[in-house]
Amino acid sequence: MPRNGGVDATRRLEEEVLALRRERLAAPDDAARHAALAARLALAGDRDGAVHHYRRSLGIEPRQPRVWWALGLALDGDFADDERAALSRLLAETPPHDPGRIETLFALGDAHHRRGDHAAAFACWTAGNRLRRREGAYDRAAHEATVAAITSAPPRRFTPPPRDAGGPGTLLVVGMPRSGSTLLERLLTRHPDVASAGECEHLPRLVHDPAAAGIDDGAALFPRLPGRLRASSQRALAAAYQGELVARAGAGWRWVIDKLPYNVFYLEAAFAFVDDLRVVHLERDAADTVLGCYRRLFPEGQEFSYDLDDLLHFYRLYRRVAEHWRRHLGDRVLHVAYEDLVRAPERTLARVLDHLELPGGAAGLLAREDTGPLSDTLSLYQVQGPVDDRHVGRWRPYARWLAPVVRALGD
């Protein structure tokens, strides 16, 4: 497992699991305690333990849409026959506007996908997405304006303040969601000099609200930096951001990973504030990316992902920004194809290690065991198995429903 938070995080997770086991023993018929224990076991890399306790929780109280959804992620949709029947009953019994229908529909969609019933799977995902979209709409005009500003001119160049002596460098792994960032994180954190801060939202937060770092000069930092920056503002933002990374990942590493995909929109600021910065941009086949987002219920945000037209709109703007960085940042950003990572992992991982100037071979990382807690993302279970290309081309059984999107992406 990746080192997320270092030794301290591993110890905390072990203590949490132990405490939850004790609580379960004290109240063996408490469904909520079984579900809580399952979630922590999942982060510890114990998929079987997580599945066991999610099932125990549902055996006590079957009307738990969120637990069904979590179990579906752990099983990759491979529910038993009686579990699929229970999911169908739960959906039939849930009122039309009950939020619980959303989790149930996504779980049932995954169950149909696993059985090869692609029409039923897509219908469930679409119904779940429609319900989820009612909770918050994607603002196309606002995002268009943001991207237009980002790409209106080359990024301004500033010399960032030097990092603290002995402090880690920062690796941003950016791109679209569902493009392989958790897999790359898992592989890189097998290296003894690398740890991860997970998906840290601190850089966007500081850029949008500089006052959080004690900066009150009134200058807007997003979507474009001003023509001049106070050295004191740079130092304050750098200290606040890198302090957060160290707080999450622990000290003593050569590199700390921040794998928030949306940092792709914040690279101008990142290079202005963060010394010893490296960026890896993960790219994935467009149709696979769109389906990967559409078929997943994200815990929060991601409003663009609950409608195919919105997804297409967001994806095109993301590509516009990515090409802008490709033109103007050159080899400061390493562009890596997801397909290369899973089909030629040793060669591709070697490119990333070279980008980080890290010693040691990629083959050793691929063979090494994981240590530490996993990142709490939707790819939590997918990255626990061997590296393979089974998720490449997943959109093809859904070509009938994705055809308009695929044609538009081809344009």
Element-level helix/strand string? HHHHHHHHEHEHHEHEHHEHHHH
What order do the strands of the largest sheet run in, or round the barrel if closed?
A: 2-3-1-4-5
Q: How confident overall, as mean pLDDT?
A: 89
**How can the largest sheet be summarized?**
5 strands, parallel
CATH homologous superfamily designation of the largest domain: P-loop containing nucleotide triphosphate hydrolases
Helix content: 40-55%
At CATH level 2, the architecture of the largest domain is: 3-Layer(aba) Sandwich
Could you state the oligomeric state of the chains shown? single chain
Rg calculated over all Cα atoms: 22 Å
* Poorly predicted segments: none
Fraction of residues in β-strands: 5-15%
Number of domains: 2
CATH level-3 fold name of the largest domain: Rossmann fold
Secondary-structure class: alpha/beta
Task: Give a quick rundown of the structure.
With about 400 residues, this protein is an alpha/beta fold.
Write a concise keyword list for the protein shown above:
alpha/beta, Serine Threonine Protein Phosphatase 5, Tetratricopeptide repeat, Rossmann fold, 5 strands
